[in-house]
Design a protein that fits this description.
eight-stranded antiparallel sheet; 20 helices
């Protein structure tokens, strides 16, 4: 029993005086025969400390790990957590003598932070710059709740009142017990205190950690701007980079943003009635070629609000979605029913209609292959109609219809897609291991590797003579593992995006080869040791293989998944607050521009094609440093009319593009020669939605059945309402082509140079023949 002084309490119920409690000592122990009550007091504080440490562990914030790094960017958050845990540790050792220190410290730190950050009023949750303001404010709220609701909320510190006065409130009236501790003292039950302390900390966890995580993500991120922006004089259509391949401007007279099929039909009918051309565009327009451009007096339909999941049919193993539904939502909805879509592009923030219309894919030669369009088993398409039809009608296609082979991949030229039904498979997991090897035998290893691994892909670093192999295989759901992919698409602050872009622009302008090689290639190799974007438990990488459910491993990208918000910092044309996060490609931010050319070489000819690319590389390996890596994947031959006629290996080249028109790239000739060689010598084709310019000329003839596709197109849209000059050029309709002859046209890939003026003669870049592929015409720096 304690003997440091006696106190008593007077208890009232409903304002009526009841009587004195038994006397106890100043550390809160009552003389109720429970000799272990003092131990219980310290033990309960220990439970409090334990839960706070658990909370920090849950957030992956052990002090030794997070303070040095996070403390530099957000010292208030670091200091507050340290103070809170430190004071609680003192409580566990010495009881409740420092309750006031705890409360005052939190109040002071919170006040200082709010003043320092200039964060006030109801906008606090919209303008928070770091997690600390929400964290501190909620700590503040927790302390206030402890005082306002003492009987239902245990104080994180035990308040010790003076002997006879502790039963009086500020007005001198007798009051009920002020907290659970007094109630426990009255009944002498240690178990009640232990349970209350535990529930208190759990409640605190929910109250001030969960909002800090969820609210911060919603309020500090800018949703990428819509692909269509309209003003009083008309509309403009943007792709995600904000620049089309030929640097032209895509305009439209007006836009419709339907939310239902009825509205979509009315939009098409309205345009047909008024003799307008029509193109359909998704929320962010991830295509670089001008598939969605329409004439300046034309009509654009945006599917950004046409994005609902209609139905998941578990028995039939299908999912039906509206055209604008993000693929991330498609695979998540399927997963909730234990189903999976085997094929997906590597970025999930793209629309269902956009994915199939451009032939987007993953990597696989197994089963149906990697083309997402291969899993389409049904569609509803709105096409032009007669006046009797109301100028628009709906065509429904199933697997039984031959026309589905045209509609699965149509470049948006048949009509406006309303709904898509995908075939699914029972859920499975993927097992991924990543390793690095020298590239000396890559031409022979590639086919073996792609056939041996269900979803395997390769990243070749030609200037470093290294290869990163991603061995990705299908495994049973019974195999342990809850991994995920965070390879691409994570939200990034505007400040970080622009800092990196200005740095890269500078070294490109200076042709600083050493800096480029160190910056780009080495980072790719080093990433392998850190999981290369894969996380074993969704939080951290601990080693290969990384195993997880298909929908969490096959794709990534969270930067687009931001709800619409009224944040004054995020305008349609710019992001005012550099601490806001967004996608690294957001056109409102100064980010590096690039050409994204995906060349598709027949698998049967890949070995010799790779050998020739190596010959170009060997002339000067450093001239390919800025490429980073060539992304190698596989696509299976198809029955879809505009699909590949044989198995293909894709080689994706992401190359830097100068921001100013007419500015050549210091190693322009290297990539032009590779591109022309793979198309002209090895029968290559291109990804329909990526870069290519003049290289697209005549490629439609290498598809499965262009003639049959054009026959279907003629029936669905006889007047070419859903076509434009670019798609007519792709198909060779009306004698049109895709080349564009003007000064500097070769720099934008719009022509294969014939004269020096097609390059940049004033800057020393002249039209010359290739060094390995002599039929190539490239823009080369001549000394």
């Amino acid at each position: 029993m304690g003997g440091k002084g006696k106190w008593s309490t007077r208890v009232s119920r409903g304002g009526e005086f009841v009587g004195d409690e038994e006397e106890g000592d100043v550390d809160g122990n009552a003389n109720d025969g429970n000799e272990g009550h003092g131990v219980c007091f310290h033990l309960s504080n220990g439970v409090s400390l334990f839960w706070e440490i658990v909370v920090l562990g849950y957030l992956d914030l052990p002090p030794c790990a997070w303070c040095p790094t996070l403390g530099q960017r957000d010292p208030v958050f670091c200091a507050t957590v340290a103070l809170f845990v430190g004071v609680e540790f003192v409580h566990a050792l010495h009881g409740g003598l420092v309750y006031v220190v705890d409360s005052v410290a939190v109040l002071v730190v919170g006040w200082v932070y709010l003043v320092e950050s200039d964060v006030w009023g109801p906008e606090v949750l919209q303008r928070v710059a770091t997690p600390s303001s929400i964290f501190v404010m909620n700590l503040w709220l927790v302390q206030w709740l402890k005082k306002v609701f003492p009987l239902t909320f245990v104080s994180s510190s035990q308040v010790v009142f003076s002997k006879k006065e502790r039963n009086k409130d500020a007005f001198g009236a007798h009051s009920s017990p002020r907290n659970i501790t007094e109630l426990v003292s009255h009944f002498g039950k240690c178990e009640m205190r232990m349970m209350s302390r535990t529930l208190t900390i759990l409640y605190a966890f929910i109250l001030y950690f969960t909002p800090a995580l969820s609210t911060n993500e919603k309020t500090r991120s800018c949703r990428p701007a819509s692909s269509v922006q309209c003003r009083s004089h008309g509309c403009e259509i943007f792709n995600y980079q904000g620049i089309w391949e030929d640097r032209s401007i895509c305009k439209a007279a007006s836009v419709a943003r339907p939310t239902s099929e009825a509205q979509l039909v009315r939009a098409v009918a309205h345009a047909i009635y008024n003799s307008k051309k029509i193109k359909v565009v998704s929320r962010h327009a991830h295509s670089l070629s001008k598939l969605v451009c329409v004439e300046s007096d034309g009509f654009i339909i945006s599917t950004e609000n046409y994005d609902s999941v209609i139905e998941v049919n578990r028995k039939a193993m299908t999912i039906t979605v509206q055209a604008g539904t993000m693929m991330s939502d498609v695979i998540e909805a399927a997963a909730k029913h234990g189903l999976a879509l085997p094929a997906m592009p590597y970025i999930s923030g793209v629309s269902a209609a956009g994915v199939i219309s451009t032939g987007a894919h993953g990597s696989s030669l197994a089963g149906k292959g990697s083309g997402v369009y291969e899993y389409v088993v049904g569609m509803r398409i709105v096409v032009p109609g007669s006046p009797f039809d109301g100028y628009a009608k709906i065509i429904t296609l199933t697997e039984a219809d031959e026309d589905l082979k045209a509609a699965r991949l149509a470049l948006g030229t048949l009509g406006a897609i309303s709904e898509i039904t995908f075939a699914l498979r029972p859920m499975f997991k993927r097992s991924v291991s990543v390793y690095v090897k020298d590239d000396f035998d890559l031409e022979n290893e590639t086919e073996r590797f792609l056939r041996a691994h269900t979803f395997g892909d390769i990243r070749w670093l030609p200037s470093h003579r290294k290869v990163v192999f991603h061995a990705s295989n299908r495994v049973s759901v019974d195999v342990a593992g809850d991994g995920s992919s965070a390879m691409t698409g994570a939200p990034t602050t505007v400040a970080d995006i622009e800092t990196g872009a200005y740095q890269f622009d500078s070294i490109q302008a200076e042709a600083d080869v050493d800096a480029i090689c160190n910056l780009v290639g080495n980072g790719t190799i080093q990433a392998v040791a850190n999981g290369n974007g894969f996380l074993n438990d969704g939080k951290r990488f601990t080693g290969y293989p990384v195993i997880g459910f298909n929908h969490r491993m096959q794709t990534s990208g969270k930067c687009e998944q931001v709800p619409k918000q009224k944040d004054k910092s995020c305008t349609p044309t710019q992001i005012l607050d550099k601490n806001e996060t967004t996608c690294s490609w957001d056109r409102r931010v100064h980010t590096s521009l690039y050409f994204d050319v995906e060349l598709r070489v027949p698998l049967s000819r890949f070995r010799e094609a790779m050998a020739d690319v190596k010959k170009i590389r060997d002339l000067n390996p450093q001239r390919m440093c800025d490429l980073g890596f060539i992304f190698i994947r596989s696509i299976k031959k198809s029955e879809v009319y505009l699909g590949p006629a044989e198995d293909q290996v894709t080689m994706e080249l992401l190359t830097y593009r100068p921001r100013e028109a007419g500015t050549p790239k210091w190693n322009e000739d290297v990539y032009q020669e590779i591109e022309q060689m793979l198309i002209e010598k090895y029968g290559g084709t291109l990804h329909w939605g990526k870069s290519g310019g003049h290289l697209f000329g005549g490629l439609a003839k290498q598809t499965v059945n262009l003639e049959k596709f054009l026959e279907v197109k003629g029936r669905f849209d006889p007047d070419g309402v859903f076509s434009n000059d670019w798609t007519d050029g792709l198909f060779g309709i009306g004698g049109k082509g895709v080349e564009e002859w003007r000064d500097g046209c070769a720099l934008d890939k719009m022509c294969k140079c014939k004269e020096d003026k097609h390059c940049a003669p004033s800057k020393g870049f002249l039209c010359r023949s290739g060094r390995i592929w002599k039929y190539a015409h490239v823009c080369k720096k001549v000394k």
